[in-house]
Amino acid sequence: MENQTEKVREVLDIFQAGYKTRDLARLDAFMELFEPGDNSELIGIGAAVRGGYEWFEGIEEIREIIEGDWTYWGDVVLDVDGAKISCLGDVAWLSTSGILIQTDTHDEALPIYLKQMTDLLQEKDVDPDVKLMEATHFGLRRLRERFKGKGHKWPLVLTAVLVNSSGGWRFTTLHWSMPVD
Questions:
Q1: For labeling, which of 47, 81, 152, 174 is most exposed (least CB within 10 Å)?
Q2: 171: domain range?
Q3: Cα(115)–Cα(112) distance, integer angstroms
Q4: Do 84 and 166 belong to one domain?
Q5: E runs forming strands in the chain
Q6: Does the reported pTM lie above 0.70?
Q7: Calpha distance 55→49 (Å, rounded)
Q8: pLDDT, tens digit, 9 for 90 and up, residues 45-80
């Protein structure tokens, strides 16, 4: 059991290294950390509804959000050594904490924020009052980030499920979360 746990920790360490270097030339190789096909999912910090804003299903959608993370998100530092990892057969699950260090100034990121807010407002099958509330919360959070400034450290949590397939341990579900502020 210990050997499997350490193998999963090695995958988490490779994941951390990818988010540390954010080398887009290595993104395709990085994507091999995920179970291929449409069953894998990555749930972002703003997700609330499957298939909605920041809920990515399938390897292509996951690739797109990771490319965006590496291009526009801050520096991610995960507690790889302190991650709690459990294994049962060919399934493993983990949880760990970390920080997101804000690397962009508000002005640099404003076009990205405006696109994200537009995407949020264009979600289908969402009550208009809910859209307005979510857009307001999103905007207030971006203003808070502006006032915290570059270099601010935001706490985060990462949870994940991995499967041991022919390619070794791979992520099948990954969920980022941040404390409510």
A1: 81
A2: 2-96+156-176
A3: 5
A4: yes
A5: 41-43, 55-57, 75-78, 84-88, 91-101, 153-165, 168-177
A6: yes
A7: 7
A8: 888 888 888 899 999 999 999 998 998 888 999 999
